Amino acid sequence: MTRVRVAGFTLSLDGYGAGPDQDINNPLGIGGMELHQWLVATRTFQRTLFGKDGGTTGVDDDFAARSFRNVGAWILGRNMFGPIRGDWPDDTWKGWWGDNPPYHVPVFVLTHYARAPIEMAGGTTFHFITGGFREALDRAREAAGGKDVRIGGGPGTIRQYLREGLIDELHIAISPVLLGRGEPLFEGIDLRALGYACVESVASEKATHVVLRRPSPMNT
């Protein structure tokens, strides 16, 4: 059965999923890269993003590996694809991750501006969805072929799906970093009222990994 989940999403201690002033030079906002110290050194990250051997093992790598397991499609907000706002000026920008993005499955990008799909190396195809987050989810579920749909972010995109009760599970990595300002993840969201409970909490040196889940799968 297809689950809709957030996995490996990192928050600061003060609740921000990205720092302030995001732009092409600071895609995660000022200070945002500090959030992901738990992830970048892991064997999973090094292999998935750079195709390299080596990297750390242990708790952080276990959670990183789990985040990619059984994923058949992704959904991203537009800023997770690129920094461009408004209409697409041209077709030169093909994402933050180079010619071989780490997804390797269909990716559905929420946007108000239509664009033809982009086929990338390694099995990633970006589809640009102008019909809203429910259309993106319907198409991602179909493309996933029974595997999971992973909501990659950013925070605003995750909040849309949370408000509508469309996310089955969240793995949040809480990084021991203070950003002060930025984009909050849970602003205006009552997770308890939505039925979520913490089912797992594991700490490493660089993050506390928390898994939130509803008591039973959603029939949406």
Automatic annotation (TrEMBL):
<dbReference type="GO" id="GO:0008703">
    <property type="term" value="F:5-amino-6-(5-phosphoribosylamino)uracil reductase activity"/>
</dbReference>
<dbReference type="GO" id="GO:0009231">
    <property type="term" value="P:riboflavin biosynthetic process"/>
</dbReference>
<dbReference type="InterPro" id="IPR024072">
    <property type="entry name" value="DHFR-like_dom_sf"/>
</dbReference>
<feature type="domain" description="Bacterial bifunctional deaminase-reductase C-terminal">
    <location>
        <begin position="9"/>
        <end position="205"/>
    </location>
</feature>
<protein>
    <submittedName>
        <fullName>Dihydrofolate reductase family protein</fullName>
    </submittedName>
</protein>
<dbReference type="InterPro" id="IPR002734">
    <property type="entry name" value="RibDG_C"/>
</dbReference>
<dbReference type="Pfam" id="PF01872">
    <property type="entry name" value="RibD_C"/>
</dbReference>
<dbReference type="InterPro" id="IPR050765">
    <property type="entry name" value="Riboflavin_Biosynth_HTPR"/>
</dbReference>
